[in-house]
């Protein structure tokens, strides 16, 4: 039987290959330090869990919920944007609750994409940024991932040489996977570019609260005057409140685009379980101590990673935000490509990372390291890495050099 049309448009899921390799190693008794998936290991805040328990089982809470989010939750998200960014949102028309930012992106792609529509997506980038549009019948054109002045000449070329003209551009800062952070000046230039070329901007701000320079919290594109005319921004409870499995996120911004998203969602889901929405509102309205603790934990882990991996012989650039480090594959292993190198780390150093090729072909010289194990485990990984690197010449002699995946 031939593959279905949409399935044919999707490449093999690289991370699944690493997961199978990791599962096999664990099955044989290996203690794998898993720095691969960005899956928070911290507990959700106590007051949020208490609100969930308090609400579950109450009359009516087991019934269908509201697809675009209960009013109290949308109001709480608007309150968060007002406090954090100074951005005023109408909770009725400019906020839609989503089942995590990933679902929001995928359904926004369904809402705005016609067959053959061109969308500009950073490369490397989080997979849903590209594949949400591919599944919707669109065409992807790569643009740089780094928010530097070079971004805009590349965007100009992409607009000029794309037929048909692109309909949208995706940005993600703090970036998954590269950890780049954009400035408000960059967003001003982006909004001006989008208005000039009649582009929709879809901004992924899932890591807004995971930053390490207290003087420079990552901005929102919606802080730019006129951004509301062209932009929708996606946020998530997953990292800020360690609620990844709760599947709670938001899309905010342009009313027309959000109305289209809400209409698509109304056909596909009834929203998250009501007690989860009530608990999410409690998180957004509640004390922020848990956010400061989360940030401090990731900062400590980042610092241990930089120190211990550096001593092991693998220099890690210091990320200023996100829960990831984006690290170049050591030169002597680079010819293997990121997927084979990642498999080698599992086999020889009991360490799992995410291969950069999974985020786009321009990521193949890198791996993404997630700060999702405690400091002791990160140091344990570093010790194993040092042993591996010290024997690398012997290991490489026994490894068949494989072509890069791409």
Tell me what you see in this structure.
This protein is α/β, with parallel strands linked by helices and 406 residues long. The chain contains 15 helices and 12 strands. It has helices at 5-8, 14-27, 46-55, 71-85, 100-112, 127-135, 151-161, 184-197, 237-240, 255-268, 274-285, 289-312, 338-349, 375-390, 392-398; strands at residues 33-34, 95-98, 118-122, 139-143, 168-172, 200-204, 231-236, 249-253, 324-328, 351-352, 354-355, 366-370. The protein has a 7-stranded mixed beta sheet with strand order 2-8-7-6-5-3-4, sandwiched between helices. A 3-stranded antiparallel beta sheet has the order 9-12-11. It has a two-stranded parallel sheet with strand order 1-10. Strand 5 (168-172), helix 8 (184-197) and strand 6 form a beta-alpha-beta unit. Helix 3 (46-55) packs antiparallel against helix 11, helix 5 packs parallel to helix 6 and helix 5 (100-112) packs across helix 10 (255-268). The longest helix is centred in the C-terminal third of the chain and has 24 residues, at 289-312. It is globular. The two termini are 26 Å apart. The model has no long low-confidence stretch (mean pLDDT 91).
């Amino acid at each position: 039987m031939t593959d279905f049309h949409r399935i044919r448009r999707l490449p093999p899921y690289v991370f699944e290959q690493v997961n199978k390799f990791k599962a096999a190693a664990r099955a044989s008794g290996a203690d794998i330090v898993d720095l691969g998936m960005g899956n928070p290991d911290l507990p959700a805040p106590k007051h949020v869990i208490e609100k969930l328990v308090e609400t579950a089982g109450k009359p009516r809470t087991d019934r269908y919920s509201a697809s675009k989010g209960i009013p109290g939750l949308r109001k709480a998200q608007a309150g968060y944007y007002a406090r954090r960014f100074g951005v005023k949102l109408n909770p009725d028309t400019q906020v839609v609750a989503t089942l995590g930012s990933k679902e929001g992106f995928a359904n926004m792609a369904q809402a705005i994409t016609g067959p053959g529509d061109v969308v500009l997506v950073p490369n490397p980038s989080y997979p849903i940024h590209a594949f949400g549009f591919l599944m919707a019948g669109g065409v992807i054109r790569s643009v740089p991932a780094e928010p530097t002045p070079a971004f805009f000449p590349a965007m100009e070329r992409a607009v000029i040489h794309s037929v048909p003209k692109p309909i949208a551009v995706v940005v993600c800062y703090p970036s998954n996977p590269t950890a780049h952070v954009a400035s408000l000046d960059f967003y001003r230039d982006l909004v001006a570019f989008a208005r000039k070329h009649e582009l929709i901007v879809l901004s992924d701000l899932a890591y807004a609260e995971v930053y390490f320079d207290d003087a420079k919290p990552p901005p929102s594109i919606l802080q730019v005057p006129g951004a509301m005319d062209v932009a929708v921004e996606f946020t998530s409870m997953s990292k800020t409140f360690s609620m990844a499995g709760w599947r709670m996120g938001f899309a905010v911004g342009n009313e027309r685009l959000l109305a289209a998203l809400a209409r698509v969602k109304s056909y596909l889901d009834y929203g998250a379980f009501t007690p989860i929405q009530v608990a999410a509102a409690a998180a957004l309205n509640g004390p922020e101590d848990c956010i400061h603790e989360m940030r401090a934990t990731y900062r400590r882990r980042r610092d241990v990673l930089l120190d211990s991996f550096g001593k092991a012989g693998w220099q890690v650039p210091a990320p200023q935000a996100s829960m990831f480090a984006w690290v170049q594959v050591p030169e002597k292993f680079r010819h293997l490509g990121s997927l084979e190198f990642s498999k080698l780390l599992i086999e020889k150093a009991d360490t799992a990372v995410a291969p950069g090729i999974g985020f786009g072909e321009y990521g193949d010289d890198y791996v993404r390291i997630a700060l999702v194990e405690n400091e002791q485990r990160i140091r344990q990984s570093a010790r194993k890495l040092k042993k591996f690197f010290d024997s690398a010449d012997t290991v490489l002699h026994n490894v068949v050099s494989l072509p890069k995946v791409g």
